[in-house]
UniProtKB/TrEMBL annotation:
PANTHER family: ABC-TRANSPORTER METAL-BINDING PROTEIN (PTHR30477), IRON TRANSPORT SYSTEM MEMBRANE PROTEIN HI_0360-RELATED (PTHR30477:SF13)
Name of the protein: Manganese transport system membrane protein MntB
Localization (cell): Cell membrane; Membrane
Similarity comment text for this entry: Belongs to the ABC-3 integral membrane protein family.
InterPro entries: ABC_BtuC-like, ABC_TroCD
Organism: Corynebacterium provencense
GO biological process terms, semicolon-separated: cellular response to iron ion; response to zinc ion; transmembrane transport
TM ranges: 12-33, 53-74, 86-107, 127-145, 187-207, 214-234, 240-259
Membrane topology designation: Multi-pass membrane protein
GO cellular component terms listed in the entry, alphabetical order: ATP-binding cassette (ABC) transporter complex
A Pfam match: ABC-3
Main location: membrane
Keyword vocabulary terms for this entry: Membrane, Transmembrane, Transmembrane helix, Transport
Length: 290
């Protein structure tokens, strides 16, 4: 399988998207921006359709639309008293609806279907280059600002107290989100990008509370899921993007059930052992000792 060039391109693209989406996923989970990831991933649709109409690279229109989406959300949140989820909902639905309208008046094309649902095994050399460029830029920004982003994600008030410009950090995370969405949509499509942005971080969060470990576990889960998804999709002739997300969801389910600290199966067993140990210590022995 690895001798085929299209498989090599798919593995490279999935590796880049897995790393950047996995890293960003940790902070999105901590901040509570799952809905933001969903909004941006769907808001790129009108930009993609306009790029298709004008003959531009899809990534150009998608990036412009993503940046427009995060700008509108940020502006509405800062200039009004509306809550964040309300601002996200208004902007997300409006831009996604605009994309649907543009699709309805655009001659049907397989390229638009690929953007919606992904075509990792058919990714072109040009699209791969775009994935790498956007991925490298996003990764560089996240690595440079990792300490500031972590401080803001855990406690925005404390971050402001120690002199961090939380407004700039928020905008940096939004721009990284836009870059990651544009890069990842080439692999799994607009509709499934949100799973790539949330599930790895959620899986890592169930396994550890240390951000340093999360930043390793999350991209690792995303990468293993990508490789396994490509292998399964190749052998069973099914959607690569959908298989990657399903495998990723399967990993999350296993962790949800058997995570050492809060697994649905293991947590009650651990609590019983602690209770039994505490009871053993508390009950006096026959000679009066404990």
């Amino acid at each position: 399988m690895l001798t085929y060039e299209f498989i090599q391109r798919a593995l490279l693209a999935s590796t880049v998207t897995a790393v950047i989406a996995g890293v960003l996923s940790c902070w999105l989970v901590l901040i509570g921006w799952s809905l933001m990831g969903d909004a941006v991933s769907h808001a790129v649709l009108p930009g993609v359709v306009i790029s298709y109409i004008l003959g531009w690279p899809f990534a150009v229109g998608a990036l412009i639309a993503a940046l427009l989406a995060v700008s509108l959300v940020g502006t509405v949140r800062e200039k009004t008293t509306l809550k964040g989820d309300t601002a996200i909902g208004v902007v997300f639905t409006a831009l996604f609806a605009l994309g649907l309208v543009l699709i309805s008046v655009t001659p049907a094309g397989t390229n638009l279907q690929e953007i919606l649902f992904g075509n990792l095994l058919g990714i072109s050399q040009d699209a791969l280059v775009q994935v790498i460029i956007f991925g490298v830029v996003a990764f560089a920004v996240m690595v440079t600002l990792r300490r500031d982003i972590t401080a803001w994600a855990f406690d925005p008030a404390h971050a402001r107290a120690v002199g961090l410009h939380t407004g700039r950090i928020r905008w940096a995370v939004m721009i990284c989100l836009a870059l990651v969405v544009v890069a990842s949509m080439q692999a799994v499509g607009v509709i499934l990008v949100v799973a790539l942005l949330i599930t790895p971080g959620a899986t890592a969060y169930l396994l550890t509370r240390r951000i340093s470990r999360m930043l390793v576990i999350s991209p690792l889960v995303a990468w293993v899921s990508s490789v396994a998804g490509i292998w399964l999709s190749y052998h069973f002739d099914v959607s690569a993007g959908g298989t990657i997300i399903l495998f990723q969801a399967g990993v999350f389910m296993m962790v949800y059930l058997f995570a050492p600290r809060e697994g649905l199966v293991t947590a009650p067993l651990l609590q019983r052992r602690r209770a039994a140990r505490a009871l053993t210590v508390a009950v006096p022995a026959p000679d009066g000792t404990r």
